[in-house]
C-alpha cells in the first residue's frame, strides 16, 4: 500500500501558508497487529482551530507537532483490520490519526479512545452533528456556563462549527441568545435559520456598543471562541456573577508563537464576581453517550441546525485547513479523502 501524508515542514512565523506543509508518500506494509491494535484508513477529515495552536512551539496542551511528521488532526476512519474486539473490521471510528491515509493505533494507549459511529448516522453527521466540535459546545455551555431559563447567553464565533451549536443549545434550554459573527450572511443565518434573538457583525458593527443595546441587563453566560478584543467587550457587559466558558482564542491562533492575551479589565472580573473557566471536551468523556443522544434528538425534532462546509481531495488538506483563519469557512469544515 501507498501511504500519502501531509507533514509539517516548518513552524510558521506569522500566518500559516502552503509552504508550511509538505506532501510525501511512503510504502506502507504494516507488521502483524499486536493484541489491542487496529489498522485504520482515513475517510473524512475534520478541522478545528485548536490545531493551529498545536503547530506552535509554545503549544501547551499537547507537545508541539513534530516537524516532518503527519499533521496532527482528527478524522473518521474505517477499521481495515483488528486485534481488538471493541473495534470490529468495517466499523467507522473518529480518531486522531493525522493527515495520512493509514495508521495503526492501540486505542488503550491514546489520550482519548476512538469513538464508534452509531448506526444510522452518516460519516458527515458523525463528524459534524455528533463530532468533537458539537460535544465541546454541549459540555462547555451546559456544564461550564450553566445557563438558566430566561438568562442571556452570548456566543462569539457563533457561525462556526462549535459556536453555532452552543448558541442553539442556549435557545433550547430557554435563554435569550446573541451571537457574534463576521459578515451579514452569517449573521442572517444565525437569526433566520438557527433562531437566535440577535447577531452582531463584528466586521461592520461596534461590538461593545451593540452589546449595550442588545443586552441592557448584562450577559449571564458568555461562550467565548475568540478572545482578544471580543472577550474584552463582553466582560464590559457581563452581569454580576456571570460565567464565561473559555472554549478558544481563535483571534490569536494565527499569529506565530504569540500567546493569547488575558482580559484587559480584571477589576471588573473581580467586582462583578465573574467566573472565567477553561474546559476540554475530554473532561466529560463519561457523559458522551448522553450528549450524543441529546444532539441527535434535538436535530430530529428540528431544533438544532448544523451546517457542513464539505471539501474533497487529499491534495486539498492544507488549503482547506487555512480556510479556518481567513473567515471563508461556514459551518463544520470537513474534507473527504477521495
Characterize the structure shown.
The chain is an alpha/beta fold and 338 residues long. The protein has two domains: 2-128 and 307-336, Medium-chain alcohol dehydrogenases, catalytic domain (Quinone Oxidoreductase, Chain A, domain 1, Alpha-Beta Complex), CATH 3.90.180.10; 132-282, 3-Layer(aba) Sandwich (Rossmann fold), CATH 3.40.50.720. 27% of the residues lie in helices and 25% in strands. The protein has eleven helices and 15 strands. The strands form three sheets. Strands 3, 4, 5, 6, 7, 14 and 15 form a seven-stranded mixed beta sheet that branches. Strands 10-9-8-11-12-13 form a six-stranded parallel beta sheet, with helices on both faces. Helix 3 packs across helix 4 (161-172). The two termini are 16 Å apart.
Named at the architecture level, the CATH assignment of the largest domain is: Alpha-Beta Complex
Number of helical stretches of at least 4 residues: 11
**What is the CATH homologous superfamily assignment of the largest domain?**
Medium-chain alcohol dehydrogenases, catalytic domain
- Give the ordered list of helices and strands: EEEHEEEEHHEHEHEHEHEHHEHEHE
Percentage of residues in DSSP E strands? 25-35%
How much helix, percentage-wise, in residues?
A: 25-40%
Radius of gyration: 20 Å
How many DSSP E strands?
A: 15
The global form is globular
Amino- and carboxy-terminal Cα gap = 16 Å
CATH level 1 name of the largest domain: Alpha Beta
Sheet with the most strands, sense and barrel status? 7 strands, mixed
Unreliable residue runs: none
Secondary structure class reads alpha/beta
In the CATH hierarchy, the third-tier topology of the largest domain is known as: Quinone Oxidoreductase, Chain A, domain 1
Give the integer mean of the pLDDT values: 94
Whole-number total of structural domains = 2
Amino acid at each position: 500500500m501507498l501511504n500519502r501524508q501531509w507533514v509539517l515542514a516548518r513552524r510558521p512565523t506569522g500566518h500559516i501558508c502552503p509552504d508550511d506543509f509538505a506532501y510525501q508518500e511512503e510504502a506502507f506494509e504494516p507488521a502483524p497487529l499486536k493484541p489491542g491494535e487496529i489498522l485504520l484508513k482515513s475517510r473524512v477529515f475534520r478541522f478545528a482551530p485548536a490545531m493551529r495552536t498545536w503547530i506552535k512551539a509554545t503549544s501547551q496542551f499537547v507537545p508541539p507537532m513534530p516537524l516532518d511528521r503527519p499533521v496532527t488532526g482528527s478524522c473518521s476512519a474505517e477499521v481495515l483490520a483488528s486485534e481488538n474486539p471493541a473495534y470490529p473490521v468495517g466499523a467507522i471510528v473518529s480518531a486522531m490519526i493525522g493527515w495520512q491515509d493509514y495508521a495503526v493505533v492501540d486505542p488503550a494507549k491514546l489520550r482519548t479512545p476512538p469513538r464508534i459511529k452509531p448506526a444510522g448516522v452518516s460519516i458527515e453527521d458523525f463528524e459534524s452533528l455528533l463530532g468533537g466540535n458539537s460535544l465541546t459546545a454541549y459540555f462547555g455551555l451546559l456544564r461550564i456556563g450553566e445557563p438558566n431559563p430566561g438568562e442571556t447567553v452570548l456566543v462569539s464565533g457563533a457561525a462556526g462549527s462549535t459556536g453555532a451549536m452552543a448558541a442553539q443549545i442556549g435557545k433550547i434550554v430557554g435563554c435569550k441568545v446573541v451571537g457574534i459573527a463576521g459578515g451579514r450572511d452569517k449573521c442572517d443565518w444565525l437569526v433566520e435559520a438557527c433562531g437566535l434573538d440577535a447577531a452582531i457583525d463584528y466586521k461592520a458593527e461596534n461590538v461593545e456598543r451593540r452589546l449595550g443595546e442588545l443586552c441592557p441587563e448584562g450577559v449571564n453566560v458568555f461562550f467565548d471562541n475568540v478572545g482578544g478584543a471580543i472577550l474584552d467587550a463582553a466582560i464590559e457587559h457581563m452581569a454580576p456573577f456571570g460565567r464565561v466558558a473559555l472554549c478558544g482564542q481563535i483571534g490569536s491562533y494565527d499569529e506565530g508563537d504569540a500567546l493569547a492575551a488575558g482580559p484587559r479589565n480584571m477589576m471588573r472580573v473581580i467586582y462583578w464576581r465573574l467566573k472565567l473557566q477553561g474546559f476540554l471536551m475530554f473532561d466529560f468523556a463519561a457523559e458522551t453517550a448522553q450528549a450524543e443522544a441529546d444532539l441527535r434528538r434535538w436535530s430530529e425534532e428540528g431544533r438544532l441546525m448544523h451546517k457542513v462546509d464539505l471539501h474533497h481531495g487529499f491534495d486539498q488538506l492544507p488549503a482547506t485547513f487555512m480556510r479556518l483563519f481567513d473567515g471563508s469557512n461556514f459551518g463544520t469544515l470537513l474534507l473527504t479523502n477521495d
